[in-house]
Every structure is written in structure tokens, then in C-alpha cells.
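Exercise: predict the structure of this protein bound to zinc ion.
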Amino acid sequence: MHIEFYGATSGITGSCHILRANGETILLDCGLIQGRREEMEKNRRPFPFSPDEISAVVLSHGHIDHSGRIPLLVKQGYQGPIYAQNATVDLCDILLQDSAFLQEKDAQYENKWRKRKKKPLIEPLYTVADARDALNNLIGLRYREKQEILPGVSIRYQDAGHILGSASVEIWLDEKGKQRKVVFSGDLGQYDTPILNDPAAIGQADHLIVESTYGNRRHRDRQNTIDEIGGIIREAAHEKGNLLIPAFSIGRSQEILYYLGKYYDQWELDRWQVFLDSPMAIRASKVYWEYPHLYDEEATRLRKRINEMPHLRNLKLTQTPQESMAINRIKSGAIIISASGMCTGGRIIHHLKHNISRSGAHVMIVGYQANGTLGRALVDGKSLVRIHGDEYRVKANIHTVGGLSAHADIDDLMRWVGNFNSHPQVHVVHGEPESKQDFCDKLASDLKLKASVPMYGDILEL
Ligand SMILES: [Zn+2]
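Solution:
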């Protein structure tokens, strides 16, 4: 029996690992490689394994960098089961179809110039129809229930506290009387994150595959972050402008809504109109709403209060483009939560066009902004930005709120790994090189664990 490392070994996207035991082959995650164009092109390369040798896919959570190549796998002939936590199944329904839609649009766009230059046309990586085929093979499991998925292979999902349905996976392997237990962290959330439970403690493993996105960094204190958000809302109210919040549709949008609900009175939100202006975020929020049994204690209490006394009564969910465009007429008193999170597309672009040159307007950046994005230009304090080919002078107030990451920081990671009392051998993945190495060193020095960083294609005998 062994593990093969094929993804998130040289960065933080394209999560993908293989376990082989008892004649079975288990694929742990099948994520899309994201980033610049050259990186994305890697998704078109053949898988380093044959799709029909896979016996089962085990998915940790819905994010595209963990799930986004599943439709491709199915398109290439994989017909077996794809296991996921129940809420992940519902979020994948949104995410994979959206990803397929973007793949189709990208291919159309690319083929336009290819046609003009008489170059061979390309096919989308996969289509919406492929994504739907894949979604038919998803099997939902509950947290904390051990399940035999193949002869000699059992799994159990534990809450990872990262997004709704996110899981760490315990995997028991049994081959000719030899037993091994592997734990895959998936993406871990911060402790004390809103809505979700803390990452569940797991006590035992022989081998641990763990993420390290923030393997050498600490997040800002949460209460400071909340106070900062309250301050920005007050400032925007005082200056009588709109407040724009570019946010990822899944996770971050719900977290912002949660805080707006929780601090409704304190932040005097009754004087605002609040818009959730993203069809995908609206759908994701409905999924979050349908899983109250996955909430932490505080969210459960708040949910009861909301049931009794409708909070955020001035929240409008704007589905249609017409409703979205109508917001553009509002010059003051609107909080607009919209995607995309890095201002690379979507409805937020239109709101930025209308507000960015107004001195009373405020933009609150609450998520990571990659190099080269409009969001990054705003964070960097550029005074001129280009939107849809036109230049806009930035007069709005830009605020960067740092503490809302969905990922565990180094203290959270150490705390989570510290729960293991079996001295597992640790394999650090899913981080930038320095972050992985620093985390590895800390595991060795503070917890006396044998930890290493696998390279792409490494095979480890268990
Ligand atoms: Zn994730």
C-alpha cells in the first residue's frame, strides 16, 4: 500500500493524491490548477494515472481547487462513486456547473481569435453537460460516520471548519492483515470562525497529509477585524456614500451577512439598504441556510433569533440583471455585497464603475487579491484603474480588512496537529514552498514529529 502525491505539491491549487491498497485505487480530491494562463494549461495535460483505474474518489470539500477536475475525470471515462460530505454535494452542484460554464465561455473567447488567425480551435476543458454527469455520481456522507467504501477501505469525514461541508478525511486501509490509517486534513479553517464549528480534533493516524496555506503566517485578531468593519460602516454612513464589498460567493459572502445580522443594532444597519447582488452567492446562502445542524453554538442561537424576529429586514437578494442595474441609481446608503471576490468579473465591476470615482464611496476588500487583478490594484492604492477598457480615477476610500481568511493560520495548524497523540508521519502539502518548509520545521521542533514536503509524483510506501 502506498500514497502518490500529484497535486498541490508545488503551490496551493490542484489538490490531488492517490492511495493504493488491497488492489483498490482511491483518489483524494481532484482539483483544478488555478493561476496564470500557463498554470491553467496544465489542466489539459493527461492525468498522471488512468481514470479507469480509480475505484473511488473521496472529496474533501467543494472549492474548485479541490473538486474542479472531477467533471474532466468523468468525461474521460471514470464512472465510479464520488464521496463527499452532504453539504459539499449541494455546493458542488453550484460550483462545478459554474466552473463548466466558465470553461465554455473561455473556449468561446479563445476560439474567436483562433478563427480570425486560422488557428485550430480548442474544446472547453469540460462542458456543463460533463459537470452534470459528474454530479450524478456524487454520494453524500455525514460527518463522523465511518463507512466502508471498498473492500479493505473505510473512510470517515470530520468537520474541517473551512467552508460549509468541508472535511478532513480519516482513511483506514487493510491489506492482507496489515492495517494503516491515513488522515488527510483537506483545507482547515480558523478556530472561532463564524457560523462553522472548529476543525474537529482527530487523535490517531499513522500518516497525516496536511495543508500549509498559512504555514508561516498569523491572521489578525478577529475582534479587531470586526471592530474595523464596524468602523468602516460608520465612516461610510457619515460620508453618505455607498459601501461596496467584493466577496467570494461561497463562504465569504455568508460570513459578511452573518456579521451584518449579528451586529445589526450596533452598526445601525437599519439606515442602510443591503444588497446581496450575486446569483451564485444567493444560491450558496440558501445551501448554508439549509444546514443549521452544521452550525456552531453561536450561529445556532442567532438562527433562532432570526427565526423569531426577522433581522436584516432591509436585505435584498437581487437575482436578475435588471435588479442589479437598478442599484446603480442609488448614490448613498447602499451596502452592496457582490462577486467576483477579486473584481476580475461579475456584477461588482459595474458597481465599481459607478462608485469608484465618488469621494464618499467606500470599498471594503475582505479577501485575498492575486497579482494583476483589479482588486489588487485597489489594495495597492492605484489612483487610476482600467475597467472595461476605460480609465477611472479612484476617489472612493479603499479599506483592506485582513482577518477574515477561511484558512487556519500557523497557530491553528499547530493546534490541530497537536491533537494527534499517535506521532503520525506528516506530509506537508498545499502551500508555497517557504510556508511548507517553515511549517515542517516547526512540526519537527515543537511537536517532535517526522515531517517532510513531498514532491510531485513522489510515491510513499506505507
Ligand atoms: Zn478550500
